[in-house]
Amino acid sequence: MKYLMLIYGNEEKWASFPAEAWPEAIAKQDAFNKKYQDTGELLGAYGLGTRAQAKLVRRDQATGLPAVTDGPYQETKEYIASFYLLDVESEERALEIAADMPFADQEPVELWPVPHESKSDF
Fold first, then answer.
1. What's the pTM?
2. Per the domain annotation, does 54 fall within a domain?
3. Count: domains in the chain
4. Residue 20 has what DSSP assignment?
5. Which listed residue, of 1, 11, 42, 68, carries a Cα 20 to 30 Å from 95's Cα?
6. Is position 55 within any domain?
7. Is residue 103 situated within a structural domain?
8. Does residue 46 lie in a domain region?
9. Distance separating alpha carbons of residues 22 and 12, to the nearest angstrom
10. Which of 50, 33, 52, 31 has the alpha carbon at shortest distance from 41?
């Protein structure tokens, strides 16, 4: 079963994180990624750009043309900062991995089941 883990960011909180602590934090995240890549349970881990770089794309119903705006969720401080795709045997295993995420003791990890998958060969 596949699961998507979402990690949220908050620029104010990250800016308050001491610069000298970043190398250790990055090393912990790299170790987490390697651990679960080596088991075959982590299919991918992707960091996203800042919320200032994100865009919302809609198609205008009348004209069919795209409408692009800044976004998303500019009224909130938190935004999706990274996502991870897992392939595990059970929900319990996905929960174990989510709980092992560095900083899960400080910030929640959102875990979503992925019950449907495209059958296309990409």
1. 0.82
2. yes
3. 1
4. G
5. 11
6. yes
7. yes
8. yes
9. 15
10. 33
Q: How do residues 8-53 score in pLDDT, each as one tens digit?
A: 888 888 788 899 999 999 999 999 999 999 999 999 999 998 878 8
Instruction: Read off the pLDDT of residues 80-99 as tens digits, 9 standing for 90 and up.
Output: 889 999 999 999 999 999 99
Provide the CATH number for the domain around residue 86: 3.30.70.1060
Q: Which residues of 25-34 are buried (b: 16+ CB within 10 A; e: fewer)?
A: eeeebeebee
How would you class 76 by CB atoms within 10 Å of its CB: exposed for 0-12, middle for 13-18, buried for 19 or more? exposed
Q: Is 17 helix (H, G, I), strand (E, B) or coil?
A: coil
| 3-state SS record for 44-112 | EEEECCCCCCCEEEEECCCCCCEEEEECCCCCCCEEEEEEEEEECCCHHHHHHHHHHCCCCCCCCEEEE
92-100: Cβ within 8 A, 24+ apart: 93/41, 94/1, 94/3, 94/5, 97/5, 97/36, 97/41, 97/42, 98/5, 100/32, 100/35
